[in-house]
Amino acid sequence: MSERDELLRQLEHHVAEVQRLRERLDSGLSGDWRPRGFYTMYHVMAGITIGGLAAAASLLWNVLGATLMLPEEHPLRIIQVYLTFGMGEQALTLEPGANRSLLLFAGSFLYLATGALFGIVLQFILQGPAARQGVFVRGIACTAFGVGLWALNFLVILPWLQPALFGGNWIAENTPWYVGLSTHLVFALSYFMLSAWGRFDPTRELAPWASVERIGPGSPGSGAGA
User: Fold this and answer.
1) Mean pLDDT score, 166-190
2) Is residue 26 part of a domain?
3) How many domains does the chain divide into?
4) Which of 13, 36, 46, 63 is buried deepest, with most CB atoms within 10 A?
5) Is residue 14 part of a domain?
């Protein structure tokens, strides 16, 4: 095969490829990435994000309450109590200093991370079984979740798990029931108020800069029509 024949063969190949791409553009290709069913990964990420924000609101609620009602205690007293799950009774006797500050910081991060994980559960509830329900029903669902989570943690799991692992029931004993309940309710209701941000609308148009339809002959950046 001569060099001319080889060049003609390559030219035909590239012309055919250009024609194929042109047909795809003319067929109305829109780059529709949206899933047809339940967008699991989206709701996982939305649950983590909104759950972390709701946990921050819950922690702030407890810090304000501790500051107003227990001025002699550290504002992050609840974090110090929760740290007994890993440190035992010594978490309640932390002396002021760098180590105490670092532990409280780590405990606060774990508090937010736990809220993010529970946020995934709430996201699946609100965007799954309760997705077609009204605001009242969704609010009741979040309230029931907060109460149920508190009851499960403080009345069922912690009373036997912490003594079995660490030899004491410090979290349940050092956290008044109304503090634990209100903390869980603030978390659940904060999530409810922010839940609209986590709703996935498959009919919503893509952002203009993400639409493949805008990239064609004569459009900005296409290199044609100049």
Assistant:
1) 92
2) no
3) 1
4) 46
5) no
Q: From its phi and psi, is residue 88 left (phi > 0), alpha (psi between -120 and 50) or beta?
A: left
Q: Which amino acid is at 122?
A: L
Report yes or no: 187 and 55 within 8 Å, Cβ to Cβ: yes
Please give the model's pTM, rounded to 2 decimal places: 0.73
The rounded distance, in Å, linking the Cα atoms of 189 and 191 is: 5
Cα–Cα distances (Å) from 77 to 83, 113, 155, 209, in that order, read 10, 18, 21, 48
The whole-angstrom separation of Cα 106 and Cα 38 is 35
pLDDT one-digit tens code per residue, 94-114: 777 768 888 889 999 999 999
- The dihedrals phi and psi of 152, each to the nearest 5 degrees, come to -65, -45
**Could you tell me if residue 21 is inside a domain?**
no
Alpha-carbon distance 180 to 175, whole Å? 6
Tokens of 8: 């003609």
Domain span at 79: 40-198
8 Å CB contact between 142 and 122:
yes
Task: Tell me the chain's radius of gyration from C-alpha atoms.
Answer: 28
Q: For 30-73, what is each residue's pLDDT tens digit? A: 556 667 777 889 999 999 999 999 999 999 998 988 887 777 77
Length of the chain: 226
Instruction: Give the lowest-confidence range in 7-21, 168-182, 211-225.
Output: 211-225
Q: Examine residue 170 and state whether it is found in any structural domain, yes or no.
A: yes
